[in-house]
Amino acid sequence: METIKTQDITVNDLPWKIECKPDRCTMCGSCVAACTFQAIMPAVERRSITVSTGHRPEPSQKHSAVLTIKQRNNIENACTGCGMCEKICPNQAIKPVRNPDSRFSLLARKGGSPIKRGGRTSLNSGRTLDNIIVGRISQMTDPALDSERHTFDILAPFGRVLMPHELPLSVVNGTLNLTAKLPPVNWIYPIIFSDMSIGALSTRAWEAVALATAYLNEKHNMPVRMSSGEGGMPVKLLESEQLKYMILQIASGHFGWNRIVKAIPKMKVDPAGVLIKIGQGAKPGDGGLLPAAKVADHVQAIRGVPKADLMSPPNHQGLYSIEESVQKMFLSMNAAFKFRVPVAIKCAASATSVSVYNNLLRDPYRICGGFFLDGIQGGTGAANEISLDHTGHPVVSKTRECYLSAVKQGRQGQIPLWAGGGIGLTGNAAADAFKVICLGANGVFLGKILIQLLGCVGNEHGRCNACNTGKCPAGICTQDPRLVERLDIDKGAQNIVEYMLALDSELRKLMAPIGNSSLPVGRSDALVTTDQAIAEKLAIQYVC
Amino acid sequence: MCRIGAIKSKEFFHPSAALHLMLPQQEGHDNSGFAMVMQDLAGVFSKHKDKPLLSLACTQKGAKLVEDYMEANDFRQLAEWIPRGVKNVKLDIKAMPYYIFRNYDYPEYYRDASEEAKGELLLDTRLALRELLEKQEQGYVYSFWPDVLTLKEIGDPWDIATYFKLWDNNGDLMAKNVVVQCRQNTNYDIVRYAAHPFFLQGYTLCANGENTFYTKNKEYQKSLHRGYIGFESDSQNFLYTLHYVLQELKWPIKYYKHVITPLPFNELSLRSDGAELRAIRQSLGSLEINGPNTVIGMLPNGNIITCCDSKKLRPVVVGGDGTMVAIASEVCGLNAILPHRNQEQDVYPNEREVVIINDALEVERWKQ
Q: Residue ranges of the 4Fe-4S ferredoxin-type domain (chain A) (predicted)?
């Protein structure tokens, strides 16, 4: 008999418990090999068996040592519920089961260190967008369009748009002529593949997203753009024709820009844009962290750094005001590409977003080419759980507020609004995008859903979300070559392409019934809600 | 559905022609009102064509409010036409107590002012009168502009014409240009200001259809100009955009079509003026219209234009003889007033076309 030690960690303290059926298990070892967290191990257990084989009970007791699969009972190797064991088991003998009595959050701050993880917020996954319906359906006076037959202009601006009276136009012989250069504006698909870096993602995962981007452009004529994420990209891509599909990101660590700047003279085409990342919705005010474990050789090469923890500071060092950032950062990024490439800014949605947007709208150089608002439901590769769950701001109302603030000044559309953070959270990115566009966004950006299409199994209910560990079981958020091999690039890219083609059709299915052949930016009259508080906040019609 | 129409003639004609143009077009319970804007007048107002003409419908108290205001602001009354309505209970008309059409001379200190300054004064005066009457619910002011008369009322167009004696041509009321429409906005509360045609600083417009970018247009137009008010109808958006493009931006007329129904991006890239058109589409994206629409507009110089939305879901036809050209939603309207014209020369504008009729009655048609 053993004495109970109440401080001992047992499997019942962990968030997931492994359920193994010994009668189905053949001890092939596949599950143990597949588990990247080493949450399970083969073990030998002593068993006591009582048998009686005759006509009358003649029990005899037998002790034997049997091989079995055992769950490790420590925090470091806690099962994340990723289910790779279940996926690989040929006999359906094993699966993780959620443990409602988990004490993990009390025990996991070992050594005085905050809990870290990847994924999305778990506490704030409520969905405003699901309470909004496209309720203004054309009937009789304004016939619906035919989503299959009519043509639709599904494009959004990336770049600074001037007020009509600011356009440098002169009339010559009854015709308007541009007399000066306009700020660069690229009209692109209203969905941007959001910034996930090489480093946060495996090279294969990043390549799959890049492949899907190029395929959508070249085979399906969908001008989807992909943001590089912080940390640059392979020189080969920088010097290729496909650079035109990429938005180069500069974040507070400025990682990768040494290479980008050196590649500028050799670029055949301009990139689609530059995105200055100030903050991220999933962890606003918290800098980026790429743990040394993920800083593999190629990451060191691309970023030009040694193998060490790579920390992006929570803000851009040396910039103390919006005006200063416009003057220094926007101007220098614009100048780097000779004012041919639009430069936009990405901020975490915040109670202060409207004042930042207002300030940018008044930028005298007219060079802020987009305002990207990232909401609390955005995903991330690594963050402190306290940031993920307890900081941030929903993106829907903030996007609306920014739009209405621009309307008040007659400046809507001048700095295109792009919204992200939870778009496609429940699987339908088209519906989410459409509704946010009706509320005033020009377009949206997606991140998490892309890696889910590649095979990520993480969710808002604590499944997996181990992006920070370098042990991603799907080969997506890891640089371990053996794990990366698990990801089939072509299949992953194909999943993204097929999703986007369906999304395009679904967008038409929403544009047709409201009778619009171009994007209904700001058409809040097309939306209704069954929630009075949402109706009031977003200034849309309440229905019941 | 609204039926809309316009007549432009080399010779002065009586407004009954406009009624004959419109009445055959009635379908179902369409005809719920009558509204017209006449430009280039003869008859009562022929001596004061360069002086602003006020068109209003009001109560006795409203008339007094207007008189006091005009007097306080140094406008001096010249000619006047106050129709005495035919009192007949059987007539289907929701008549106001008074209809006043009155010429004024500019205040003395404005006599030598530029046309532009005068235009601003007339607009400010109309807006002030509208506010005055609206606040006390004493009436409606429709236009205040030289050589322009607006008449609007709720009811059956035939009965409204009877009430105003518009069937009898006594030479009092004649014009060379008329834009006309015979339906109140029956989808919403019936408001006199919601009836087309709308007027602003010499620009008149009526539209048939539904502008599904109403909210977008309205939210943008509200901050563009002090005269862009009301928004009782989604068709006011068309007028305000016409005024903005021509009067405020001072762009040639052909860009109006490029603003309201811009070319798709893939077509823009094929055009030699693609850069300009793209810039226009970018900067005026909030003024794009959507939904099925046909527009008839009259410009300060008397030219009349018509065009459709880019999916052409509402009809319009232009036809004429040597002395008169008319535009109507349905060809039966043209047949009623121009039975002997050459029908083969009728123009049915397509989704990318704009038709302009000038004072010489030359019908110019060009593609966007």
A: 16-45, 69-99
The number of domains in chain A is: 2
As for the ipTM of the complex, it is 0.92
Domain that holds residue A76: 11-51+59-113
Q: Which of A151, A409, A516 sits opposite B264 (nearest CB)?
A: A151
Could you tell me if A156 and A108 lie in one domain? no
Chain B 290-309, residues with CB within 8 Å of chain A CB atoms: 290-292
Among the partner residues B249, B290, B292, nearest to A516 by beta-carbon distance: B290
Is residue A231 located within the same domain as residue A336?
yes
Domain ranges of chain B: 4-367
Distance CA(A180)–CA(A315), nearest Å, equals: 36
Residues A278 and A329 sit within 8 Å (Cβ to Cβ): no
The reply to whether A88 and A198 lie within a common domain is: no
What is the residue-level pLDDT of chain B in tens, covering all 368 positions? 678 999 999 999 999 999 999 999 988 777 788 999 999 999 999 999 999 999 999 999 999 999 999 999 999 999 999 888 888 888 898 889 999 999 999 999 998 999 999 999 999 999 999 999 999 999 999 999 999 999 999 999 999 999 999 998 888 899 999 999 987 766 667 788 888 999 999 999 999 988 989 999 999 999 999 999 999 988 899 999 999 999 999 999 999 999 999 999 999 999 999 999 999 999 999 999 988 899 999 999 999 999 999 876 688 999 999 899 999 999 999 999 999 999 999 999 999 999 999 999 999 999 99
User: What is the nearest CA distance from B357 to chain A, expressed in angstroms?
Assistant: 17
Residue of B290, B293, B314 to mutate, testing the A interface (most A Cβ within 10 Å of its Cβ): B290
First to last CA, chain B: 26
Distance CA A360, CA B280 (A): 22
The C-alpha atoms of residue B133 and residue B127 are separated, in whole angstroms, by 10
Structural domain contains residue A320: yes
Cα separation, A91 vs A174, in Å, equals 79
Together in a domain, A75 and A195: no
Chain A residues contacting B via beta carbons under 8 Å: 138, 141-143, 145, 150-151, 153, 155, 157, 161-167, 169, 171, 174-178, 182, 185, 187, 407-410, 412-413, 514-518, 520-525
pLDDT at A1: 62
Let me know whether A386 and A491 are in one domain.
yes
Annotated binding site of A: 25, 28, 31, 35, 79, 82, 85, 89
Pick from A145, A167, A174: which is nearest to B283 by CB?
A: A167
Whether residue A288 has pLDDT greater than 80: no
Residue A66 belongs to domain with CATH number: 3.30.70
Q: Let me know if A291 is exposed, middle or buried by CB neighbors in 10 A (0-12, 13-18, 19+).
A: middle
State which residue of chain B sits closest to A162, comparing Cα positions: B283
| Residues in chain B closer than 8 A to A521 (CB atoms) | 216, 285
CA distance A249 to A228: 6
Residues A438 and A522 in one domain: yes
How far is A389 from A383, CA to CA, in rounded Å?
A: 10
Decide if A167 and B310 are in contact by the 8 Å CB cutoff.
no
**A340 and A225 part of one domain:** yes
Assign residue A383 the CATH number of its domain. Answer: 3.20.20.70
Sheet with strand B33-43: strands edge to edge: B148-154, B33-43, B173-181, B4-13, B324-328, B317-320
Q: Are residues A453 and A514 in the same domain?
A: yes
Q: For chain A, give percent helix, strand, coil, nearest 5.
A: 30, 20, 45
- List pLDDT tens digits, range A47-87: 898 989 889 988 999 898 989 999 999 999 999 999 999 99
Selected residue of B221, B283, B286, B288 to mutate for chain A interface (largest A Cβ count, 10 A): B283
Task: Give the neighbor-by-neighbor strand order of the sheet with B203-209.
Answer: B198-200, B203-209, B293-298, B304-308, B353-357, B363-367
Nearest CB neighbour to B216, from listed A151, A167, A522: A522
Residue contacts between A and B (CB atoms, under 8 Å)? 104
Residue range B4-367 in CATH 3.60.20.10: yes
